[in-house]
Amino acid sequence: MKVLLVLPVLIPLMTAGVSLLAFRSRRTQRWLGLAGTSGLLAASVLLLFWVWRDGIQAIQMGNWVAPFGITLVADLFSAIMVALAGIIGFAVAVYSLTSLREARESFHYYPLVNILLTGVCGAFLTGDIFNLYVWFEVMLIASFVLLALGGERDQMRGALKYVAINLISSALFLSALGILYGLTGTLNMADLALRLERKEAPGLLLAVSMLLLVAFGVKAAIFPLFFWLPASYHTPPVAVSALFAGLLTKVGVYALIRVFTLLFLQDTGYTHRIILVLAGFTMLTGVMGAMVQNEFRRILSFHIISQIGYMILGLGLFTLGGLAGSIFYIVHHIIVKTNLFLVSGVAHRLQGSFKLEHLGGLYLNYPALAILFLIPALSLAGVPPLSGFFAKLSLVEAGLAEDHFVIVTIALVVGLMTLYSMTKIWTEAFWKPAPASTSSGAMRHRHPTSLGYLGGEVAPIAGLAALTILIGLGVGPLMTLSTQAAGQLLNRSAYIHAVLENRK
Amino acid sequence: MNLLLAIVIGGLYASALYLMMRRNTVKLIIGLALLGQGTNLLIFTAAGLTRAEPPLIDLETQQPMENFADPLPQALILTAIVIGFAVLAFALVLIHRTHQVIGLEDLDDVKVRE
C-alpha cells in the first residue's frame, strides 16, 4: 500500500519522460497525456481513500531513517489536495485534446503539463521543507514554459513578469530555509516542529516566518503581492490558464497553511493576526479589481485573488472551524474556478473573443452552455444550494464564533460583489443580443455553429459542473472530511508521530 | 569570517535589488543571478562555518571524526546552484525572445494592453 504515496509523483513524471521519448509523434503524446492524467486521478483518489480510512501515512525515501532522508507524508489535507490535482489534471487534459492547436501540441505541451502535475503533487506530499523548495521549482519551470509557449506578444509580456517575481520569491524562500537550518539543524518538517517548540530565539524565528509568508504569499497571490497574476493568467491558451488558475496559487496556499499550522506557532496572536488582516485586504482588492475589468479571463483572474483571501481567512482565524472552512473552500474553489476558465474558452471558440463587448447572445444560441456557466458562476458567488454557499457559510460561522465581525462583514460584502461580477459576465456575454458586426478579431476564426462540435471541450465542463452540484448536495460528508483534515492540522503530534515513528 | 561574509551577502542582496529596479531587462537578469548567489552564501554562512575535518568515516572506526564539518548545507547549495542555473538559462532565453517579439528593453513598456 505504501507505494500509493509515491504514485502521484511517479505517474506524471514517468508519463512526461515517456512522452518526451515519443517527441516525434503528436498522437502518441496526446494519448500518453490522457493516460497519465487518468492514472494520476485514479491513484490520487485511492490515496485519499486510504488516508481517510487508515490515518496519516508516511514513507521514507531510500529507507533513510526519518529526519535524515526525504519523507513523503500524506495527511488528509495533503491527500485532498492531491485528489484535486488529479481531477483538474484529468479535466484539463481532456479539454486540451480538442481545444489546442496542433503547433502548440507538438511542442511538448502534454509532457509539460505532466511535469507541472509532478511538481504540484510532490509539493503536496513532501515532508521535507527543502524538498518542498525543489518541487516548487519543478512546478515553476514547467509553468514558465507553458506560459511562454507559443511566443505571442501578450504572452511574452505576461511571462516576463511571472518569471521575475517567482524567481525573487524562490530566493526569499531559500534564504528562509538557510536561516531555519542554521537555527535548528534539520529540514524535516516534523522534526522542525519538535525542535522549534524548544527553541527560544523569537526574533529570528519571526523573521523566518515572515520571509516564508512573503515567499508563499507571492505564489499564492495574497494582498500586496498579487500583481503578477492578473498580468499573466489571461495570456496563454485557455487550457493552460485553467490549469494555473485551479492549481498553482493553491500550492502557495497549501504551503502557507502547512507551515503556519505545523512550524510557526510560537506567537500565533501576532503572526496569524497578520494573516487575518492580509486575508481581508486580499478579498477586497481582488474583487474590486474585477469590477472594472471587461475581459472574461481578467475578471476571473481577479476573482482568484479575492478567493485566496477566503482561503487564508480560515488560517488567520486558526480554529478548527476556520481551517475546516478553508479546506472546504479550497476544494470548492479549485473545481469551480477551473470550470469558469474552461467556459470562457468555449465562449472564445464560439465567438472569437474574450472581450465582453464582442461577446453576446450566447444564451439564445447555446442555452446548454449558459446553464453550464451559471452553475459555477453562482457557486463562486455563494448562492445556495451550490458548493460556494456552504464554503462561505462555514468560514462566516467560524469568524462569528471568534467575534471577528469586521472580517466577516468583508467576507459577506465581497460575496455580494462577486455576484455583481458574475452578473456582469452573464448580461454581457450571455444575455445581451450578439453584437451586430463581430469585430475583425472574431472573423479570423471559423466558428463552429453548434456545441456538438465542441463535445471534447464541453464534456469536462459538464463533469466539473456536476461535481459542483454534487458538493452542494453532499455537503455533509465533505464538511466532515474537511473538519477531520483540519483536526489533523491542529493536532500536530499525530503528524509528527507518523513521520518519526521509526526513531525511538 | 562571519562578519565578512555577512557584509558580502548584504552587498549582494542590495546590488541585486538595485539592479532589478533599474527597469532594464538585462539588468533584471543580472540582478536575479546576484540574488541567487547571495542566497547560496547565506545558506552557507547561516548553517555555521567550521574549521574542521571533512565528514569522512574511517573503515575501522565506523564513526565520523570528532568535530567534523556539516556536509548538508553544501548539498543544499549544490542543489540550489543547479536549479538556479537552469532557471537563469531559461530567463535569458525568455528575455532574448521577448526582445525579438516586442523589441523591448525597458520594463516600463511591459504593460499589457487593455
**Tally of alpha and pi helices of chain B:** 3
Major sheet summary line of chain A: 2 strands, antiparallel
Residue stretches of chain A low in confidence (pLDDT < 50, at least 5 long) are: 439-445
| Count of separate DSSP helical elements of chain A | 22
- Structural domains of chain B: how many: 1
In short:
The complex is a heterodimer of chains A (504) and B (114). Chain A contains 22 helices and 2 strands. Chain A is mainly alpha-helical and 504 residues long.
Please explain how this structure is put together:
The complex is a heterodimer of chains A (504) and B (114). In chain A, 78% of the residues lie in helices and 2% in strands. Chain A is mostly helical and 504 residues long. Chain A has a domain of 170 residues. In chain A, helix 14 runs antiparallel to helix 17. The longest helix of chain A is centred in the middle third of the chain and has 32 residues. Chain A is globular and about 70 Å long. Chain A starts with a helix and ends with a helix. Chain B has 114 residues and is mostly helical. Chain B has one domain: Helix Hairpins. Helix content of chain B is 63%, strand content 0%. Chain B is elongated, with a radius of gyration of 20 Å. Chain B starts with a helix and ends in a 12-residue tail after the last helix. Chains A and B meet through helix 6 and helix 7 of A and helix 2 and helix 3 of B.
